[in-house]
Amino acid sequence: MTGDLRVPSRVLVLHNTYQHRGGEDAVVESEVALMRQHGVEVWTHLVSNDEIHERNKAVVAAETLWSRRQVAAVQALLRQHRPQVVHVHNTFPLLSPAVYWACQREGVPVVQTLHNFRLGCPQAMFLRENRVCEDCLGRTPWPAVKHKCYRDSALQTAVSALNIVVHRSLGTYRHQVDRFIALNGNARLKFIEMGLPADKIVVKPNFAEPIAEPAWSGRQGGLFVGRLSTEKGMATLLQAWDQLSALPDGGRLKVVGKGEFEADWARRGDQVYLGFKPLSEVIEQMRRSLYVLVPSICYENFPRTIVEAFSVGVPVIASRMGAMAELIEDGVTGLLVTPGDAQDLADKMRWAQSHPEAMVEMGRQSLARYERLYTPEANFAELMAVYRSVLR
Q1: CA distance 31 to 47
Q2: pLDDT for residue 3
Q3: How do 253-256 and 222-225 pair as beta strands?
Q4: Of 87, 118, 289, 312, which is least packed with CB atoms within 10 Å of its CB?
Q5: If DSSP codes are grouped into helix, strand and coil, which group holds residue 323?
């Protein structure tokens, strides 16, 4: 820690974890560990979506809007530990936005990281029927209920939509949160369109730990790492790979992850589909690859896979949209493709395979970008700057 008294030494982190561990959960763990490494005293209040199966569904729906139980729990923590800042990540569905009010009543400033678009989209990704949909952006989100956007359920979508409407009308997000963290500039603009105060939204990216050194020789093929789901562009990648694998010089591909497309990838053989792997093995696969693939058909907020690839000097082929188009400089740190266009993706993968030296050079540029912007040290400095801005 520095000697600057405005830098907080006591932080409370609130987060509603997911049933299937994802990027948000990993980011929370990484930020907490980073702060503790720098001498910040951090307490965490984590609730798990696993509780949903054990509780009355009507009670869960009501508490999604306002959880008195969580208000009491957070107030007790605030009075016990007296943190200088509360950092909130996900509140849906068990924490509820009521926790912001608890913090403000105790006089503790609130920082909220916006990992997704749930404050303006009940489905949280601006995605419907495999395409970007902004019908609810900046509006009352009833179109989402009509289309059953959240889990294909009108009832569950209505609860998420009502959460947005109620807390907009109460002014919860405008008045009870002191600073919002958007993970990229494109997302910041979307949040402003949703009605969040522009002067309260700052951009701070995620980071990745430097786990291994780059390997500049012996690289082959591409690698996909992540959830094997529709929004991650699995249908597009399957079509592109089937085109390439039919060619004599089609190249190589490794796929790591779990999800609804597991069976589809398993049919391509165990030389392609590796299943789920721990991070250390994922990084080793990255080091051996010419490029990493992120063919998502949704905006994405900040795919950590990209900065993990950059950290070992590997360029990324990704969709030209949202955070991906912001993180990747086309032809410099990777290649951008038209979202959902299997032919374009196949063409870029084929080009990458036939130009290994160009891809290695892009990898060197990727590593330089990582070292400049996405290291733990750079991120800690940015996070502390955000905290300083809200200290009273």
Answers
A1: 17
A2: 46
A3: parallel
A4: 118
A5: helix
Q: Alpha-carbon distance 24 to 223, whole Å?
A: 22
Angle subtended at Cα 366 by Cα 361 and Cα 371, rounded to the nearest 5 degrees: 130
Report the side by side order of strands in the sheet with 201-203. 41-48, 10-17, 85-88, 110-114, 179-182, 201-203
Tokens of 179: 């600073």
Identify the DSSP state of 90.
-
Q: Answer yes or no: are the C-beta atoms of 136 and 165 closer than 8 Å.
A: no
Matching residue, tokens 């780059």:
214
Task: Tell me the pLDDT tens digit for each residue of 34-48.
Answer: 999 999 999 999 999
Radius of gyration of the chain (CA): 21
Helices (H), 112-228: 142-147, 154-170, 172-175, 185-194
Helix axis angle, 356-373 to 304-311, nearest 10°: 110
Q: What are the E-state strand segments in the chain?
A: 10-17, 41-48, 85-88, 110-114, 127-128, 131-132, 179-182, 201-203, 222-225, 253-256, 273-275, 291-294, 316-319, 334-337
Q: What is the DSSP letter of 132?
A: E
pLDDT digits (tens, 9 = 90+) for 75-123: 999 999 999 999 999 999 999 999 999 999 999 999 999 999 999 999 9
Q: How far apart are CA 345 and CA 327, in angstroms?
A: 18
344/130 Cα distance (integer angstroms): 18
Contact 292, 222 (CB under 8 A): yes
Segment 314-318 mean pLDDT: 98
| Other residues' Cβ atoms within 10 Å of the Cβ of residue 249 | 8
Can you count the helices (H) and strands (E) in the chain? 16, 14
CB of 191 closer than 8 Å to CB of 114? yes
User: What is the C-alpha to C-alpha distance for residues 277 and 226, in angstroms, rounded to an integer?
Assistant: 10
Residue 97 amino acid letter = P
Dihedral of the CA atoms 192, 197, 203, 205 (nearest 10)? -80
List, in order, residues 6 or more apart from 170 with CB less than 8 Å away.
none
